């Protein structure tokens, strides 16, 4: 047998949950040919994996890389964390189907919902499509470091079918629904992995109205689901209506909203036989609501539904620092004025005694709406996402004998603007995270790679899960953990040949120095089109990542291969 690559002597974790074993992996072309003993066999390259883990490439089922891969074919940040396959098109916001006259609207909608600059989207994408199948064709032509598939989004489908009525007309007409169903069928036949929608009032267009489809009647959702059922294709993904007390809403949390959301998902899944997945998080207005969600989901699945909540391996946190946003931006125009300055200018302003005094006075007069006791230091000296009262902004201020605003300024200057703070506004309770991830129906997701680029950096959660939950605490075995990041997601989204390190599968492979695996602190960089900024986060411990049988990343550096493929339903 002629091999192109042999990975010799590693500990193979195959992604199925089977016990780890010492084995060699032989690769020819884009496939894994042999998993076993290859003593004496030769190859164009032999990798010594003694003492290392050899795993399938990770499958990230919840990304918003829809635009970024067009100008960043390597797929940073995902490529630094072992991801070889990503699912785009989540939360209902996609770029196809799209008439030429709707491009601006969809780009601005993506910016408003996912914090991806519209100018970057408009200038960075080729926009050489109208249908969803043509969109995937365009992605086929683009060089890509990782494999990608996507769902078709409710927002673009509604805009294509209803035009200007898509946002404000909550109940679509029979003709509108018929046209939407035609567009979804066209998308599924063109390769879409499913359909996604948003029902959270937190997702809005630039003028503040909720995105198209937020208030769609369940019958509209059922009709679309029935197209999927008839074709036997696709998953139905949703950003659900979840937290009704954010942004000043008061009163007792209304758990009838949870009952309503699970009811339509249950009905859709039972009617169509298709799986449904939704973003599943703990919110601050009703911290135990997640238990009620799981109670209802478990009951629905026992009665024939296929509902799979997806949650994160750590808190979903907004990053604050001088580089971009601060916890005090809502306190005054002076604080907000810092955002658009170069870092050197920001530091100079903060060193000016008069300006510094004004900033501190502004916060005293108009306190931030955020709980500063829940904002924690996160930098090169502390890459730790768990709550530690001693590391809160409040605690640092008390130790220094100054106000939180003054402590924030002082620590920004001491770090030359690199210091960061993390505010985990969702999924902050690690006991709850563990309980959710142990539920048999819950899957790992919502890393949001490519989205919220100036606020959040959660695309590194694969590395975090492997270190915090598998290696350091032993909450999951390495076999269990790798399965959760590979075959579970691949199977849910129908990604054939991905997510397993077995003979005949595509050769998407990680070689990992498990003991050395570690996260770097997030960093704010200006590498998007037109000089737009974003947070990135690197890692160490990934010796090698292969995509479709070619060396993609080695030691955290891209090796030149761009052989990722579009995965169609």
Overview of the molecule:
Strand 2 and strand 3 form a beta hairpin. The radius of gyration is 24 Å and the shape is globular. Helix 5 (174-189) packs parallel to helix 6 (218-231), helix 12 crosses helix 13 (404-414) and helix 15 (461-472) runs antiparallel to helix 16. It folds into two domains: 59-315 and 427-492, Metal-dependent hydrolases (TIM Barrel); 318-425, no CATH class. With 569 residues, it is α/β, with parallel strands linked by helices. Strands 1, 2, 3, 4, 5, 18, 23, 24 and 25 form a nine-stranded mixed sheet that branches. A six-stranded parallel sheet has the order 9-10-11-12-13-17. Strands 6-7-8 form a three-stranded parallel sheet. Mean pLDDT is 96; it is low at 245-251. The protein has 17 helices and 25 strands.
Cα separation of the termini: 32 Å
CATH architecture descriptor name of the largest domain: Alpha-Beta Barrel
Strand content: 15-25%
Stretches where pLDDT is under 50 for at least 5 consecutive residues are: 245-251
Count every beta strand, where a strand is a DSSP E run of 2 or more residues: 25
Q: Can you give the mean pLDDT?
A: 96
CATH C-level label of the largest domain:
Alpha Beta
What's the Cα radius of gyration? 24 Å
The main pleated sheet reads as: 9 strands, mixed
Looking at the structure, the CATH topology of the largest domain is: TIM Barrel
Percentage of helical residues? 25-40%
Which geometry do the CA atoms define?
A: globular
The class by helix and strand makeup works out as alpha/beta
Let me know the CATH homologous superfamily of the largest domain: Metal-dependent hydrolases
Count of distinct structural domains? 2
Number of contiguous helices: 17
């Amino acid at each position: 047998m002629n091999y192109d690559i042999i990975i010799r002597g590693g500990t193979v974790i195959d992604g199925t949950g089977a016990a780890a074993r010492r084995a060699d992996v032989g690769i020819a072309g884009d496939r894994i040919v042999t998993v076993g003993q290859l003593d004496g066999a030769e190859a164009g390259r032999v990798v010594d994996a003694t003492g290392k883990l050899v795993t399938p490439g990770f499958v990230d089922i919840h990304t918003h890389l829809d635009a970024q891969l067009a100008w960043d074919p390597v797929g940073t940040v995902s490529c630094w964390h072992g991801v070889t396959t990503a699912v785009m098109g989540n939360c209902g916001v996609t770029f196809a189907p799209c008439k030429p006259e709707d491009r601006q609207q969809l780009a601005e909608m993506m910016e408003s919902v996912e914090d991806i600059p519209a100018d970057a989207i408009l200038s960075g994408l080729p926009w050489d499509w109208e249908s969803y199948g043509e969109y995937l064709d365009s992605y086929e032509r683009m060089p890509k470091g990782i494999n990608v598939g996507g769902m078709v989004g409710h927002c673009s489908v509604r805009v294509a079918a209803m035009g200007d009525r898509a946002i404000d007309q909550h109940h679509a007409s029979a003709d509108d629904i018929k046209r939407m169903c035609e567009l979804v069928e066209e998308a599924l036949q063109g390769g879409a992995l499913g359909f996604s929608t948003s029902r959270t009032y937190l997702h809005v267009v630039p003028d503040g109205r909720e995105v198209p489809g937020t208030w769609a009647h369940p019958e509209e959702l059922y009709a679309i689901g029935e197209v999927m059922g008839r074709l036997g294709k696709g998953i139905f993904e949703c950003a659900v209506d979840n937290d009704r007390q954010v942004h000043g809403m008061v009163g007792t949390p209304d758990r009838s909203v949870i009952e309503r959301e699970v009811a339509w998902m249950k009905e859709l899944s039972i009617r169509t036989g298709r799986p449904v997945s939704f973003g599943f998080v703990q919110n601050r207005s009703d911290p135990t609501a997640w238990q009620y969600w799981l109670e209802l989901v478990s009951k629905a699945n026992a009665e024939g539904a296929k509902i799979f909540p997806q949650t994160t391996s750590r808190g979903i946190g907004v990053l604050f620092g001088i580089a971009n946003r601060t916890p005090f931006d809502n306190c005054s125009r002076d604080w907000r004025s810092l955002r658009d300055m170069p870092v050197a200018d920001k530091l100079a302003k903060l060193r000016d005694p008069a300006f510094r005094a004004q900033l501190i006075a502004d916060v005293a007069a108009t306190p931030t709406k955020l709980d500063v006791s829940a904002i924690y230091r996160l930098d090169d000296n502390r890459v730790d996402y768990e709550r530690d009262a001693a590391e809160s902004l409040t605690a640092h201020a008390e130790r220094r004998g100054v106000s939180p605003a003054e402590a924030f300024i002082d620590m920004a200057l001491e770090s030359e603007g690199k210091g960061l703070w993390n505010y985990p506004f969702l999924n902050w309770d690690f006991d709850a995270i563990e309980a959710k991830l142990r539920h048999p129906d819950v899957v790992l997701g919502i890393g949001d790679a490519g989205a919220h680029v100036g606020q959040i950096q959660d695309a590194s959660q694969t590395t975090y899960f492997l270190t915090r939950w598998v290696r350091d605490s032993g909450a999951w075995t390495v076999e269990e953990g790798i399965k959760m990041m590979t075959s579970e997601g691949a199977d849910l989204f129908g990604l054939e040949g991905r997510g397993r390190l077995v003979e005949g599968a595509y050769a998407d492979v990680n070689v990992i120095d498990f003991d050395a695996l570690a996260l770097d602190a997030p960093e704010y960089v200006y590498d998007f089109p037109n000089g737009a900024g974003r947070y990135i986060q690197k890692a160490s411990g990934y010796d090698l990542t292969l995509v479709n049988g070619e060396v993609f990343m080695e030691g955290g550096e891209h090796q030149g291969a761009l052989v990722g493929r579009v995965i169609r339903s």
